[in-house]
Amino acid sequence: MHRLQVVLGHLAGRPESSSALQAAPCSARFPQASASDVVVVHGRRTPIGRASRGGFKNTTPDELLSAVLTAVLQDVRLKPEQLGDISVGNVLEPGAGAVMARIAQFLSGIPETVPLSTVNRQCSSGLQAVANIAGGIRNGSYDIGMACGVESMSLSGMGNPGNISSRLLESEKARDCLTPMGMTSENVAERFGISRQKQDDFALASQQKAASAQSRGCFRAEIVPVTTTVLDDKGDKKTITVSQDEGVRPSTTMQGLAKLKPAFKDGGSTTAGNSSQVSDGAAAVLLARRSKAEELGLPILGVLRSYAVVGVPPDVMGIGPAYAIPAALQKAGRLLCGEARNSCREGEPAGGCNSPGPPPGLHGSKAGCHATQ
């Protein structure tokens, strides 16, 4: 997206900037198909619900996760016991949702012999789950695995960080780890010259793309409709079926965005309109070794060539993709050239972080679902 190109431009002038961030001519070619390739087989997700106000406000995360686990296995007619491992990204549940995820596994009819783990890498938790499963396939531990992400921001708020050492006062970097996410957004905007106008422009484009995609049914194939129970304002139970993302706002205008007040500090530029909403949802992506997928007659929708994780200062954590994407491209054998930059700039043609606005635990697994459609 344009945001990434702008951030890359800012970072390129910094002394500590990596040469990986510089544009260069493309000369590499992807390798030929190999029996050992890690391939994407299938993916499904729930709709993205509005936290505390949407259709999933009373739905527990294990139910959301169970819905997508069940759907993926049924779609490809894979026996649950054929899974070698399950990795689930989650941020807000206690213990990264380990108990919750294991419960979801059993609710989906997956036997206890299939191992499961959870992972918390903040907003990259779902993507880290994909990387974990891919790593297990590559090292020969198993041939098929499920990578998932789930979050209920309705039922698990952004609580305190837990027991923290008083020695954090001795380290600026340690103190920065406690910076609220909204303030990290303000820091990025100030440090890299991203104006309120640019943020509102991006938010409007995100809403327009998502609204267009939703109206054309682009998300229909990846979404698992979820029938659940919700409590109305009087406390009465009502059964509903949630079948589309609730964060898409087709009526968004620049005039409306401009009227919103800064959400995190006086004179700031981050508002409720140009931020991602708080949300509920789940997603699951099935990965396999190419040889096993072919043996079982499973679809092969893509190949996972590489992934990369790069640490950045915690008080501007939002710049992470500007470092990690070039690193992943280089590992895949493709330099960051014009073609790749264009792909980044148009990386979410059906919305983006503002709309539909996935919650932190499933960003990566939701992206995987998009990639399978």
UniProtKB/TrEMBL annotation:
Keyword entries, A-Z: Acetylation, Transferase, Transit peptide
Annotated region (Disordered), positions in chain: 346-373
Q: In which pathway does it act?
A: Lipid metabolism; peroxisomal fatty acid beta-oxidation
The record's annotation in Pfam families points to: Thiolase_N
Q: What are its E.C. numbers?
A: 2.3.1.9
Domain (Thiolase N-terminal) ranges: 38-290
InterPro entries from the UniProt entry = Thiolase, Thiolase-like, Thiolase-like_sf_Thiolase, Thiolase_acyl_enz_int_AS, Thiolase_N
The organism's superkingdom is given as: Eukaryota
Q: List the CDD domains.
A: thiolase
Q: Which GO terms describe its cellular component?
A: peroxisome
Q: Does the keyword Protease apply?
A: no
Q: Which reaction does it catalyse?
A: 3-oxohexadecanedioyl-CoA + CoA = tetradecanedioyl-CoA + acetyl-CoA; 2 acetyl-CoA = acetoacetyl-CoA + CoA; 3-oxo-(6Z,9Z,12Z,15Z,18Z,21Z)-tetracosahexaenoyl-CoA + CoA = (4Z,7Z,10Z,13Z,16Z,19Z)-docosahexaenoyl-CoA + acetyl-CoA
Class of this enzyme:
transferase
Q: Which GO terms describe its molecular function?
A: acetyl-CoA C-acetyltransferase activity
Report the NCBIfam families cross-referenced here.
Answer: AcCoA-C-Actrans (TIGR01930)
Protein name, per record: acetyl-CoA C-acetyltransferase
- Where does this protein come from, organism-wise? Mus musculus
